[in-house]
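As a warm-up, study this chain.
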Amino acid sequence: MARLMPCMDLLTFISDTVRRKSLADALGKSPDYLWQIASGWKGRKPSPELAIDIEEATARLGPECVPVQSMLPDLEWQRNAEGKVIGHLVRRQTAEQGQEAA
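Now compare it with the structure written out below.
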């Protein structure tokens, strides 16, 4: 499988206001909304589809990409041979959730 470029989390990526505006424009979202999902404000998270769009847009904009796993770690992500996300599977149970269920 191809390697992704160096990665960072979404909050770090958008801490630069020029990158935040560029990403917002590329996604058709507001810079404020990006901050809300990056910071988890009021429990906000991106949809799986938006997470994929963010990964692809940040890879184009650089300097580093924001991988889907960093935004939605509870999903199992599928990638093709080139490393492009092609889908996601059922939510996986984290160790913390497993302890709560036991």
